Amino acid sequence: MTDITPHGGHDQQPAKLGYSPRADIEHRLRLADTDPKAARRAERQVTSMFLLSMVFVVLFVVAYIGIDPSTEVYIPVFGLTSALNIALGLTLGLAIFLIGAGAIQWAKKLMPDVEVVQQRHDQLSPDSDTQEAAANYERGKEESGFARFRMLRRTLIGALIVFPIPLVIMLKDLWVPTPEEEGKSPADILSTTLWTADMRIVSDGTYKPVRPEDLPVGGLISAVPADLQEVEELQGNLNARGKAAIILVRMEPDEIRAQQGDGWDYQGILAYSKICTHVGCPIALYEQRTHHLLCPCHQSTFDLADAGNVVFGPAARRMPQLQIGVDAEGYLVAKSDFAEPVGPSFWERG
Ligand code: FES
User: Fold this and answer.
1) Beta bridge partner(s), residue 322
2) N or C: which end of the chain has fewer CB within 10 A?
3) DSSP readout, 267-306?
């Protein structure tokens, strides 16, 4: 049997709700419990917080649209900082804070501060307990004032409805085209990477040019184009890396069953895009005995000894292969750019 016993009390609402404050515990009433004017004042305060929260969401949108991302302001301690980041952080932070602060004020000033003890036992409740729980729920609804304070309820719902708007707007920043990419379709953009004829292949991380003898049979190296570092510094983002990253694997030449072009390997060394053709996770899980490359995100599996074809999983397209050779000094180089777009296949559907 569930027993809800009030400890402490509230002069008006407990009686109205069907129980009395315990006589043995002194309970201090709040101003809003006894003075209807104070209760209305508290209601206005909370309402204002929810309304202000909505105003800050609107200001977030205005800042996002109106402030140039290159504008900087001086902030003590932090120095020169992006004005856009400051404005977005402040407005979104205040919008969230005001919803939280309003909810706390509502609970502290307007909901009854009654203590109850709920004794629990068996998990399976008899019908009478279920009915009692339903009655307690109704009582809780009444106590919270959600039904009673119409303005509070509406402004809270309004604040929660507009609150996700900044999150939707920020989705746009998932991809910011560079000036050269403006106006091009994603498929066009993904068809052009930094790889060009005779571009050296360098190890990712150390940026050291790779020689064929650096890669033993069965080995794998993550690699990038030689000029990637410079381009990244110029562009200030990782877009070029996201398209040009490759893996080099080496197998015995007679283990290669098919390639995307005749002789695209160099003495058993094959270069493939590192970006999964499903939804774009970087891949470097290689099983040297089967020559399978496994994507950790959704388990697409590609056979690198068979032209990078899909052997398992949701990817709908093979991994693009890069034709490679060596230059006069014996370093591995690309022979051209990829022959097909890298990355997720769904870009091509448009
Ligand atoms: S991203 Fe590779 S399988 Fe989904």
Assistant:
1) 271
2) C
3) TTEEEEESB-TTT--B--EEETTTTEEE-TTT--EEETTB
Are both 162 and 200 inside the same structural domain?
Answer: no
Ligand 1 atom closest to Cα of 295? 2
CA–CA–CA angle 250, 255, 259 (5° rounding): 80
If you measure from the C-alpha of residue 59 to the centroid of ligand 1, how many angstroms do you get, rounded to a whole number?
A: 38
Give the residue numbers spanning the domain of 156: 4-174
Select from 131, 156, 174 the last residue of a domain. Answer: 174
Measure 315 CA to ligand 1 centroid, in angstroms. Answer: 6
Q: Whose CA is nearest to atom 4 of ligand 1?
A: 298
For a pocket test of ligand 1, which of 272, 279, 294 has the largest count of ligand atoms closer than 8 A to its C-beta? 279
Work out how many domains the chain is built from and give that number: 2
| pLDDT tens, position by position, 266-320 | 999 999 999 999 989 999 899 999 999 999 999 999 999 999 999 999 999 999 9
**Residues 167 and 266 occupy one common structural domain:** no
- pLDDT tens for residues 212-238? 999 999 999 999 999 999 988 887 778
* Ligand 1 site residues, Cβ closer than 6 angstroms: 276, 278-281, 295, 297-298, 300, 313-315
Phi, psi of 30 (to 5 degrees): -90, 165
